[in-house]
Amino acid sequence: MAKMNVFYAQSGGVTAVINATACGVIETARKHKDKIGKVYAGRDGIIGALTEDLIDTTKEAPAAIRALRHTPAGAFGSCRYKLKGLEENRAQYERLIEVFRAHNIGYFFYNGGNDSADTAYKVSQISGALGYPVICVGIPKTVDNDLAVTDCCPGFGSVAKYVATSIREAGYDVASMARTSTKVFVLEVMGRHAGWITAACGLAAEKAGDAPQILLFPELTFDPDKFLPRVDAMVKQHGYCAIAVSEGIRNADGKFLAESGLKDAFGHAQLGGVAPQIANLVKDRLGYKYHWAVADYLQRAARHIASKTDALQAYAVGKAAVELALKGRNAVMPVIVRKSNKPYKWTIEAADLKDIANKEKKMPRDFITADGFHITDKCRQYLSPLIAGEDYPPFKNGLPDYVKLKNVAVPKKLKTGFAI
Questions:
Q1: Catalytic residue among 44, 115, 118, 144
Q2: Is-catalytic flag, 118?
Q3: 194 plus 224 within the same structural domain
């Protein structure tokens, strides 16, 4: 029987280590040439499959693939594009199978978050019904750390390390100028519904008074009447106040403070920046001079200060995905299972995609202090191992030396195109 090819795609917001996962997939597949043919990547995610825009990774030298381990962002391009249900748009799934059949693809690895797990699960269920069974394995990735089942998500540890470092450094800056200048600094981090990244900022505060003195989580309703007195007290007690806030905090009506009124491709509300709103509230009500910053893409692109734990786990789930597929495991995802905190030990196990798709893991209430403004020791014990260790990229001329792949296109075999 002819060896089947692999289709690998990156989905959603990219991370500092998603390419390490791609490296894990490709290098592992290359070690199993007796069972796997070529590894094709989708140009710009699942769109590459729908439009038959495939990348031939066999055209890349081993050194280039190896360099993916320390290169941020998505080497093959990603997308925010959600496949609808079979009843809503059967043509999408028929097209996927048409492309897979044309290129002898028997393995589908989808590297993404909640929605990507849903897509991989749907394809696993539908491909057989359409007469071309495909082994589908989801691979975890999300900076938000909100996937169900897995202990943590590859991509999160590096974001956590970056924001904790940033708020610590900014705190030193503000403290040094607070007597005659800025007294309040606000850092906005990602997290629409889950406050894991905000919580990670709390790691910077090792003792009372350290920055950040206040954390604002999306799991809790934002109450200005509790928040403002806390800011005032911190400034009077410590001379300044550093605040980390999730982009997704909501008011008493349940509305995002920063909602822009627009929606992204997944139907999620686009958020327009909560940091300036919080900063202006402090200025208007308390009169303190402020500065604010939005970590935005910087937090998820910062490979120069990636967590070693995160980089190792990102590669491991890519490797495990291929190994699971070769065992015939369909509709599963390799997940991280924590064995102990001290010393930190973890392993990879398989979980069913149906238990992960479209589910969201939020911060447990006992990870947040009773007053709602910081993290508990329990949360700190969970987070600390995830930012442990350094995994610096090589540097050249004073800057990180990242790889750019050739991304050679696979010749198309189908006569018809597909409109996105």
A1: 144
A2: no
A3: yes
